[in-house]
Specification:
Elements: H1 7-57, E1 74-79, E2 88-96, E3 101-113, E4 118-126, H2 128-163, H3 165-176, H4 194-243, H5 250-280, E5 288-291, H6 292-302, H7 304-309, E6 313-318, E7 323-326, H8 328-344, E8 351-357, E9 360-366, H9 394-404, E10 407-414, E11 417-424
Length: about 425
């Protein structure tokens, strides 16, 4: 998903786009409207001059064009007698000697007769006003558009601080609401806007239902785990007592031993699921700065016998201490799971390599390739080699601890090695 945008920014963008489109259309419409009316005015002026010219020259024998001082705006050319040219109006651009540039003109061409000759007359008048009017229109539109943008920006600031204040307060309350705290409640700021009040009331009811459901689920999970653990402990104790009996034959002892192993496995499964639920429910909230190098050293000493039993070589590469704010108990669970997995799923005389840097740590071990995608191994009850003695919850616990603590983990298998990298979230 792309970068999110604030609601007010989106609204302002639509306003800006609509205003810009409106001003462009309005500018073109005004341009053509003014051009049309200006041409009408110029045509009327040219028609008046045409009539005046014809009335003043029809009593003459011929026209002496060289004596016309207004030749810059009137051109006269003698044509065949009897040729009649109907008045025709059109636009053209010509070089103006006064302005010393090419400017647009409005022209009219017609025929005019004297008593002894026939002439074609072209009258012209400059259209400088059109260009000036167009420039004025666009300048005015830009000024208006700039003022509207300024007003819209000021309105946006006002809306953000005044109108949207209750909504922003609601978002802040949602972000800070902690359903783990039984005394926490959803507090909102009353608003004169009906929709905001309806939203706040709905969110308050929803928060109360979520909090109530959470505590009921939490209580059920803890009670269920506790109640299951008690009979499991009794069954385990009875089975161990039976194994001490002298009257057992080998077949019965084998069956009891299998039942005992299943009971132990069920007890471990119950404890792991309870732990996973507590982590998901954020019940390990107390954090402190933890040096992961020290935690690794502690568990490497605890696992000395297990490491020696499989003949595993341990290589520690510590460039700098990785110190991170995390719950200490969760850190112990995280490192113990990662190390135990690296040892249990290793090959005889294999190798475990631990690399610690300032902003990450990496643990890799030799071993067989997993039967499925490495990403799937973070799912609950997913095993890489379907071994019956493993629960399939180790990496699920690891991922939950990592993500709950503000970090992220990646798992790859390359060059016959399982590689897990943990880094802080960006």
């Amino acid at each position: 998903m792309g970068r999110s945008i604030k609601l007010l920014s989106i609204i302002n963008r639509y306003y800006m786009f609509s205003l810009l489109l409106f001003f462009i259309l309005a500018g073109f419409m005004l341009f053509y409207a003014f051009s049309f009316y200006l041409n009408e005015e110029l045509d009327e002026q040219l028609n008046t001059e045409r009539v005046h010219f014809m009335n003043s020259t029809q009593s003459m024998d011929t026209l002496n064009t060289s004596s016309l001082v207004f030749l810059d705006f009137i051109s006269v050319k003698r044509i065949s007698p009897g040729l009649i040219i109907e008045p025709e109006k059109f636009d053209s651009s010509m070089y103006d000697k006064v302005e010393k540039e090419i400017i647009p003109f409005r022209l009219i061409r017609f025929s005019s007769q004297t008593r002894k000759a026939n002439y074609v007359v072209v009258m012209k008048t400059p259209k400088l006003e059109t260009r000036d009017i167009v420039n004025s229109i666009f300048l005015s539109l830009m000024i208006v558009f700039g003022l509207l943008c300024l007003i819209l920006y000021i309105s946006n600031l006002y809306l953000s601080k005044k109108v949207w204040s209750p909504f922003l307060k609601t978002i802040s309350s949602i972000k800070t609401l902690n359903i783990n705290d039984c005394d926490a409640s959803f507090n909102y700021q009353a608003s004169h806007i009906e929709e905001f009040n309806e939203l706040n009331v709905s969110l308050q009811k929803m928060a109360e239902r979520i909090q109530s459901d959470y505590f009921r689920m939490k209580e059920f999970s803890e009670n269920a785990a506790h109640e299951l653990q008690t009979p499991l402990s009794i069954i385990r104790s009875k089975l161990e007592s039976l194994l001490q009996s002298k009257d057992l034959n080998n077949e019965d002892a084998q069956l009891i031993n299998q039942a005992l192993e299943s009971t132990v496995r069920l007890s471990r499964l119950n404890q792991s699921l309870l732990l996973l639920t507590k982590i998901e429910n954020r019940q390990y909230g107390q954090k402190q700065m933890v040096n992961f190098s020290e935690v690794f050293d502690k568990y490497l000493k605890l696992y000395t016998e297990m490491i020696a039993e499989k003949g595993i070589r341990i290589k520690m590469n510590k460039e700098e201490d990785f110190i991170f704010e995390i719950n200490l108990m969760l850190t112990d669970i995280l490192i113990s799971n990662l190390l135990s997995n690296a040892i249990k799923h290793n090959v005889l005389n294999g190798e475990v390599m631990i690399s610690i840097k300032k902003n990450r740590f990496e643990i890799s071990n030799t071993g067989k390739a997993p039967d499925c995608s490495t990403e799937l191994l973070f799912s609950r009850f997913k095993k890489g080699n379907n071994s019956p003695e493993h629960l399939g919850l180790g990496l699920a616990l690891v991922k939950e601890i990592v993500e709950t603590s503000g970090m992220q983990i990646s798992y790859t298998f390359e060059n016959e090695r399982h590689v897990l990298v943990v880094i802080p979230k960006e």
